[in-house]
Design goal:
The protein is mostly helical. It has 4 domains: 102 residues, no CATH class; 77 residues, Annexin V, domain 1 (Orthogonal Bundle), CATH 1.10.220; 47 residues, Single alpha-helices involved in coiled-coils or other helix-helix interfaces (Up-down Bundle), CATH 1.20.5; 91 residues, Annexin V, domain 1 (Orthogonal Bundle). 72% of the residues lie in helices and 0% in strands. Helix 4 crosses helix 5, helix 7 crosses helix 9 and helix 8 packs across helix 10. The longest helix is centred in the N-terminal third of the chain and has 24 residues. The radius of gyration is 25 Å and the shape is elongated. It starts with 6 loop residues before the first helix and ends in a 16-residue tail after the last helix.
Length: 335
């Protein structure tokens, strides 16, 4: 009697049946939980016949073939080709398995979003978030998103993708839920807290003179304090530290705890790191570098949390008028 195998057991059998170097490359793409589950099943593999091994390899080949057709011409094209080659029943079995897999793949819901609408949603995300999301997209979809962004963002995002390591499932799920929420808001009923509207409002307020900005925020805080805070958050992000004048950067860095700064600098641009290290003393630089080295590999969620703490501190310092975040040539200080 043929042994019934789960998906992970089939994957384990497939990995031990192929070249060990190829298996090692596959393992590099998996998260810790997936590696643990596969390792367990490899170590406790059920005895199977040669025929079953061949059947598993064939099933894998057929699914790869089908996924290639779907990526190349869409689901209808894949059904047409597979039905012609394998028959209706076999085709539906394969398509069903792929659909089941894709539903569990992180950010798979993005496959159902129109390309133009997807670009409108994602272009407001931070580079770090975009890099994470794009690692789960197919290459063509990711290339389309990347090409639509401003040129000065493209190289930074590619650099972040190239440096990305294993991301914990918790962080992936958190980002996934945030993107789902934005899409739901984008396509759902109008809302005063619409994320796209918040970002547009932040862009407009970033371009007007400071006195008008102050008046508007004073009125907003009376009407809707939560909305005012959300707009403020979108008007300054961690990478914007490089746009502060030298004196302001030094005032900020003097207030930010070293542990938050060390964590926040673990995943950012070289320009941000250079800005920080150029505005602290040699002794503090050495201490900060030591703290960063001691941290070792950290979770993206911890980095983002530290960066948000620093941003919140900067915004609070601006609110209490300890610093002024300059908006350009028209935003001059007066005595």
């Amino acid at each position: 009697m043929e042994i019934a195998l789960s998906g992970v057991e089939k994957a384990a059998l497939l990995l031990v049946s192929i070249d060990k170097n190829k298996s090692a490359e596959i393992f590099k793409q998996l998260n810790e939980d997936e590696i643990q589950r596969l390792t367990y099943h490899i170590a406790t593999n059920k005895p199977v016949t040669k025929e079953m091994q061949n059947s598993i390899a064939l099933e894998f080949y057929e699914m790869c073939l089908a996924q290639g057709y779907i990526n190349g011409g869409g689901i209808d094209y894949a059904k047409e080709v597979l039905t012609e080659a394998l028959g209706t029943q076999k085709c539906m079995d394969i398509i069903g398995r792929i659909a089941s897999y894709n539903q569990n793949k992180p950010f798979s819901f993005l496959d159902e979003v129109d390309a133009g609408e997807l670009l409108n949603i994602l272009k407001f995300e931070r580079n770090q978030t975009l890099a994470l999301v794009m690692t789960y997209m197919d290459s063509e979809q990711a290339a389309t998103v990347l090409a639509s962004l401003e040129e000065d963002r493209q190289a930074d995002i590619v650099q972040r993708i190239a440096k990305i390591g294993k991301i914990s499932p918790e962080v992936v799920n958190q980002v996934q839920e945030e993107i789902k929420s934005r899409i739901s808001t984008f396509f759902g009923p109008d809302s005063v807290a619409d994320t796209m509207g918040i970002n547009i409002a932040a862009d407009i307020l970033s371009a007007i003179d400071r006195s008008a900005e102050v008046r508007i925020f004073d009125a907003l805080e009376i009407e809707n304090e939560e909305m005012a805070e959300e707009i403020r958050k979108q008007m300054f992000i961690f990478e914007d530290i490089v746009n502060l004048d030298r004196k302001t950067v030094q005032v900020v860095l003097a207030k930010v705890p070293n542990k938050d700064l060390a964590m926040g600098l673990k995943s950012t641009t070289d320009v941000v790191r250079r800005t920080v290290f150029e505005n602290i003393s040699q002794r503090v630089s050495e201490i900060l570098q030591q703290e960063m080295d001691l941290l070792g590999k950290v979770r993206l969620g911890e980095v983002l949390e530290a960066q948000q703490k620093i941003v919140s501190q900067i915004l609070e310092m601006e609110r209490t008028q300890e610093i002024i975040i300059s908006k350009g040539d028209n935003d001059k200080l007066v005595g």
